[in-house]
Design brief:
It is globular, with a radius of gyration of 14 Å. It has a domain at about 35-105: Jelly Rolls, CATH 2.60.120.10. It is mainly beta. The protein is about 0% helix and about 55% strand. The two termini are about 25 Å apart. It comes from Chitinimonas taiwanensis DSM 18899.
Length: about 110
């Protein structure tokens, strides 16, 4: 079954109490918004997004490395990265992130 994504004007609930833990919420020509859940100890090695991005911590704690620095993201913290900036994530405590990608699709 194909996954349904929100369309312009749709209301989206981002809490992790409903639906899948990792879920694409919005996918459109130039934007993708997804919820990413990570277990304590999980690591995302250095990688680049396919555009500019933001990551907002909804719950838990992660260490987010970029620009030669490591930031601790706790609930309510948001970080922004320019187009294709390398970054890595280390999950300290079970966490949920809301990630927004600004893409170059045609």
């Amino acid at each position: 079954m194909a996954q349904t994504h929100a369309k312009s004007g749709d209301l989206v609930w981002i809490n992790t109490q409903s639906g899948e833990a990792n879920q694409v919420l919005v996918r459109d020509t130039h934007i993708e918004i997804f919820r990413l859940s990570l277990a304590a100890g999980a690591q995302l090695q250095s990688h680049r997004a396919a555009g500019a991005m933001s990551a907002q911590c909804l719950s838990g704690e992660v260490r987010f490395s970029c620009h030669g620095q490591t930031h601790t993201l706790l609930p309510g913290a948001l970080i922004y990265l320019q187009d294709a900036e390398p970054h890595a994530v280390d999950c300290v405590q079970d966490a949920s992130l809301l990630v927004t990608l600004f893409l170059h699709r045609r």
